[in-house]
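Table S4 entry, 4-diphosphocytidyl-2-C-methyl-D-erythritol kinase.
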Amino acid sequence: MITHLRLKAYGKINLGLDVLGRREDGYHEVRMIMQTVRLHDSIDLYRTREPGIRLETNLYYLPTNEQNLAYRAAKLLMDEFGIREGVSMHLRKFIPVSAGMAGGSTDAASVLFGVNKMFGLGLGVRALMERGVTLGADIPYCLMRGTALSEGIGEKLTALPPVPQCQVLIAKPGISVSTKVVYEALDAMELKPEQHPDIDGMIRAIREKDLHRVAGKFGNVLELVTAGRYPVIGQIEQAMLECGAENAMMSGSGPTVFGLFTNPRAAEAAYEALRFGKYAKLAKQVYLTGFYNVKRD
Ligand code: ATP
């Protein structure tokens, strides 16, 4: 009997993000190139005799009830399968919150995976994805991981070959952005065709394993909104480029910015400059990480 599982819930960045339109039900049709990074939250899952779900986190401002996606993920499976025992979860957050890195979604994906395993529910990854998408559009991808094209509202996933390994510098400015507000502002804009990123070109560059061209194809339609409102996003990108990044861009609805580096020394120097040096005022959280390409199947 499994009584304890330690799960790593990895964050993601978007190498490309296009929004095709808004559906009747309010969801947006997207085309996104998703990439898992090694930066992860850690979740300890304990099986308890006492029924119910308990959640603790290291961040005082995060909810620990049904408003937390990790809690909802556990509840979804425990209700459906009538599990009489309980679970206790200890969530340690390292992925920046409200940052465009799918932190909540990846916690939920890991809890679905963990509860399924702990109680021997016998669900495959596909079955977990079908349940996960009812909690959040990015959860199916977080169950899958690696490099992928995400379409529909996020439930249509196509695995892509891994992007060549490099250094990924992540910097989150000290501002909070509401995903909902960003999408609403985008809906009110009339985009010209050239404002949409070349997702197909990005896919070709990934298939050809050409990191330089992948970086050249960066594009995120939500940057038009978020970077328009917060100049610090463009300033962080500029700082990363000056430090030798192949390219730099905002992830998701922001405000996190990431840069890809092929020179480890330049990446280290950029990390230092953003963390402690001349660009330290721009970013509140800075991480130097890399791609994570181990898929769950
Ligand atoms: P996305 O990239 O999917 O847009 P995000 O990075 O913008 O996600 P999250 O960090 O996933 O945003 O979560 C943002 C909001 O969700 C916060 O207001 C937070 O209170 C709530 N939330 C619920 N559960 C979690 C969780 N497990 N981790 C982080 N935030 C959570």
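The radius of gyration is 19 Å.
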